[in-house]
Amino acid sequence: MPNLIPGSPVRLEEDSEARRSLPEVPFAVQDAFGAKAQVVLHRGRWSALAKRGGRHAFALFDGEGAKLSAVRTTVLFGQTLEVDAAARSLVIGGSGQLLYAVEPDARARCLGELPAPGRIESACWLPDGGVAFVLGSEIHVHRAAATGELEPALCFRPEMDEIYGLRCLPHPREREICVIAAAAERDAGLWAVSAAGQVHALARWDDLDLAEVRLCLDETGLRLMLPETATLAVGGGLSRVLGLAQSLRVLDSLPSVPSEPAPALVEGQTLAAPGAAEAKLEVTVAVAPDAKVAPALDRLGPLTAALIRMLRAGAERTTPDPEVLKLIRANMPVDLRAYVHAWAMYAPTNPTVYEFWAASPQPVTHGFIRELVGDSLQLGIFASGEPIVARRSGSSRCEVMMIEEEGIPCRYRGLEGFLADLQMRASELDDWTFELDAWQR
């Protein structure tokens, strides 16, 4: 990934460990916004653009459900829904001619409206509370005045055919100089904009793989995250932007970019937060189309496959349990999916493996457990009362945990790891038969 700007120390370096630490999209968030919404995580806050008629409504997640604002937009693709330090979300409204700062209570303050026909394609916050946005082939920079209003600063041409996303990257001197990043599939670039109004090119790449300022959290392409570090998403993973501090020390030696004064925005109308009835986003949680399909046992470990055979030996339900069936998600790890599927389709009678008392899976709602393990499903309890939960830790596997009496989670690699521990415990006892032995083939 060579930087095309001569003399610039800025470079991209793949972060191979980033995928392992990515957050999950909680079931509650998915269910609140619906499967078709574009959902973004930034600064610990979930927000979304949910389809409403022919447009999209901006909505926030308040910890329990979705709360609609009055902002409507036809701009979907370039929206980053970035959150500033004051917890305000930046949203492009209308047909792309409006900029809104949406407060956590859903009140939407209009930051300005384009004075002439045009469409803002993407926008980002600046460290001082200003905004940069893409208009046509230009990037416009508006600084924050002492009153909080936006003041036009400058606009420049980034020499990119298209821009799908815009971000301001963090660095030690961001109050003096903002570093604006733009990306569009194979192209990406960085520009330094000083408080004095000078623009320098820091980096250009033209042969990247799926470059973006946002990172997809799953295969849908609709659940995204804005990293809070100096990174770009490349090839489905994160790449660190290195050399920013060094580049700012030699800024005068890097190519300058011509700029001109940006036109002022005109005042727009602030939108009040909707009332309780209007703010409610009604979403029907649909069962995954293939939820009733039984996962193949040959994709499971031997102990996990034995457990699933034990569960499937229960009486087949006349109709699947709808509350359990809807827990199955498209990206659910196969071992967890097999467990949930078995309980949805069959009615096992008090299945027990050593001292694990299996039960129909339920979403974990206990605040203390959620703080420890995040979004998870409870699979049953240990004989001494400790809950056994499964936490999704990626699209290929789950993480099973036993919450010990002291509140310490004991972690296992998937159901297979948990069952192997049970097998080991049972083998240490005299005259103990391990229940899964009868179900192994």
Descriptive report:
A 6-stranded mixed sheet has the order 5-4-3-2-18-17. It folds into 4 domains: 20-115 and 276-293, no CATH class; 116-271, no CATH class; 297-345, no CATH class; 362-439. The protein has 8 helices and 29 strands. The chain is elongated, with a radius of gyration of 26 Å. It is α+β, with helices and mostly antiparallel strands and 441 residues long. It has helices at 27-33, 244-249, 276-279, 302-312, 322-325, 334-345, 367-373, 414-427; strands spanning 11-15, 38-42, 45-52, 55-61, 66-73, 89-93, 98-102, 108-113, 120-125, 131-135, 138-144, 150-156, 165-169, 177-184, 187-194, 199-205, 215-216, 223-225, 231-234, 237-242, 259-260, 315-316, 346-347, 352-353, 356-363, 376-382, 387-392, 398-403, 409-413.
